[in-house]
Write a structure and sequence with these properties.
With about 100 residues, the chain is an alpha+beta fold. About 30% of the residues lie in helices and about 30% in strands. It has one domain (about 5-105).
Length: about 100
């Protein structure tokens, strides 16, 4: 799904009164499956569209997005080989990805 489709889905979810968060890749280094600017939108029920990693960190990003929808606090998530969390979410490919997550008002 390309970015305009993701933003259309965000619009539709908000029009339905759902809480929504948008995650955007803001930094990559080394091996990274998705480029800077890639996006993932999440609704309050855990539904999502788009991709920030081709799958290897999506679960962790969705969990953080759900927390963001609830508390309204933006997050800068850091995944990489120097971060122990990277092995937990499956990013052992030798790269680094930073993802910014914010609630859509």
């Amino acid at each position: 799904m390309n970015e305009p489709d993701i933003l259309d889905q965000v619009h539709d979810w908000r029009a339905d009164g759902r809480g929504v968060a948008l995650a955007t890749v803001v930094v990559t280094w080394g091996s990274s499956p998705r480029p800077v600017g890639s996006q993932l939108a999440v609704d309050e029920a855990g539904g999502f569209v788009g991709s920030v990693s081709g799958g290897c960190i999506e679960g962790a990003v969705v969990r953080e997005a759900l927390d963001c929808i609830e508390d309204g606090k933006p997050r800068l998530l850091d995944f990489g080989i120097t971060n122990e969390q990277a092995w937990d979410v499956g990013l052992a490919c030798g790269g680094k990805v930073q993802v910014f997550v914010e609630r859509v008002e």
